[in-house]
């Protein structure tokens, strides 16, 4: 399958690609000139320049110098030109927004028989080379999922047996409440923050009406008998939760043993996805009573309250309940079509998480930050380079106690961003206004440079702000006088700096020092 056939699905170089790439290239002066012209067209000068760099000219001389070992010149070989095309496609992968179309158009202009569609597919092939196997969906579906699903099946069996035992001993309880308690206990067992206990005063109450016992709301004071019931139920459920958690951990450990290059976070993320998909699949037994209850609570308390009520009652997935509400007439917001991730975008994001923030990656890919966070999080990839500092990082860098930093945040002296990290602009202003907080003797060389750059950037920002304020406060009749002083050769009092440009460069150096 040749490179000329852009309509084909494959983007692998084939034997007949030589017909296209080597057309006109021969061991003669015209052929050599054509080869050099093609190389210059593939690698044009940098933007704003009308000539190639010295390094490029040196490379050209090295490429076209005579071979002394008896081999033909490299510019006469097919492999050389295939590599050149791939190198240009790599520039599109790691270039700025829109560069993919630019480099594809550049190659297509040199070889019109290489269609733009085929070149885009070839870019995907180039991006896929060197990527870890866990980027491929097939790897997870064929290698990892069977192991995790076996562990999930065993875990679900233990939880169901515990729920059935609790309902058998205490038939006054509803399955939705017991299932919710299992989720709460599982969260506690996994080391996350404790959920509200059913034994507390805000616990669900067993209300007895007309001689029958049903699960009531949390209004009023919990009876002691209700607390005793939930204590007994907890002891039954905890046994099942511990067994189920053990099954899940064993499945994850088994995957990690077979594929040691995977991150534990990535395996658990996949496990949670399978658990949710398993709960979502299968028909739900909707009844007229459930439909009436869903729409009644929707009218009284809103859609979220209605979905939560049905979920507590049935333990069904929220999305399934929400879908049923839309089928019954609840208004549905239109969602934009989700753009699939390409291999080129994968490659750029994975190679950039060490030195670019998620926001910068999103801007380069013309995607939302949430889309990038979701892609990284679903694969357990940490965004190592992030704007600002966490409380822990700032405490370690500046040798300041964390409670002191939290106090400054509460007082509004430092500000957190949406990701919970202290913004660099906020820290910059704080250090400038409170230099007594800087423990200079305790700082290492990199941190000293970082703090100094932040202070300098803040001074430049303030100086530029004062200069702008003075310029805005001048009256209109003062402008001619200023022009006259300039023509008279009088020195201007305006700072001879570009505050915004200096600030960007200094902040870039400061971020580079802070993340070494």
Description:
With 516 residues, the chain is mainly α. The chain is built from 22 helices and 2 strands. The chain has helices at residues 17-21, 29-42, 54-64, 78-94, 99-110, 116-128, 137-169, 175-189, 224-258, 264-280, 288-301, 303-314, 318-327, 343-352, 358-365, 369-378, 391-398, 402-410, 424-433, 445-473, 478-487, 499-514; strands at residues 206-209, 212-215. Strands 1-2 form a two-stranded antiparallel sheet. A hairpin with a 2-residue loop joins strand 1 (206-209) and strand 2 (212-215). Helix 7 (137-169) crosses helix 10 and helix 11 runs antiparallel to helix 12 (303-314). The chain is extended. The chain starts with 16 loop residues before the first helix and ends with a helix. Mean pLDDT is 76; it is low at 1-8, 191-222 and 479-516.
Radius of gyration: 33 Å
Task: Supply the helix-strand structural class.
Answer: mainly alpha
Strand order of the largest sheet: 1-2
Task: Count all strands and give the number.
Answer: 2
Distance between the termini: 47 Å
Major β-sheet, in short?
2 strands, antiparallel
Mean pLDDT score: 76
